[in-house]
Specification:
117 residues, mainly alpha, Arc Repressor Mutant, subunit A, three-stranded antiparallel β-sheet, 6 helices, 3 strands, 60% helix, globular
Length: 117
């Protein structure tokens, strides 16, 4: 028997893991590229400018977290990111940064000004 608190704790752990996976810049970039189409490792590695080995490690973590799906066809593997929560997060991030382009790339010389009360 699970209590409501146990279920809530499990949800929080799941959401924290999801956000942890997306907090890595390369994994976030992978999700962005895979959110609108399916792609194989070779093509995606070239697009992102990283080795297939490094990309495979990122894809493994994302797949284990349930963020990306894999489809096998012959000797190839095709990946996609159609996780509804991740899709909403990516859409929200896009809306935030399109609405205020200055927030997308913080200026290091201005960071002390932002932290003042």
């Amino acid at each position: 028997m699970y209590s409501d608190q146990t279920k809530e704790d499990e949800r929080i752990i799941y959401h924290a893991d999801l956000l942890s996976q997306l907090s890595n810049p390369k994994r976030l970039e992978v999700c962005i590229h895979l959110s609108d189409h399916e792609e194989d490792v070779n093509s995606l590695a070239k697009r992102l400018g990283i080795s297939q080995s490094a990309l495979s490690q990122h894809l493994t973590r994302l797949h284990q977290s349930g963020i990306v799906k894999v489809r096998r066809h012959a000797q190839f593997r095709y990946y996609t990111c159609d996780h509804p929560g991740v899709q909403r997060i990516l859409k929200t991030l896009s809306e935030i940064f399109e609405a205020d382009p200055d927030r997308a790339t913080p200026d290091a010389t201005d960071s002390s000004e932002r932290n003042k009360p």
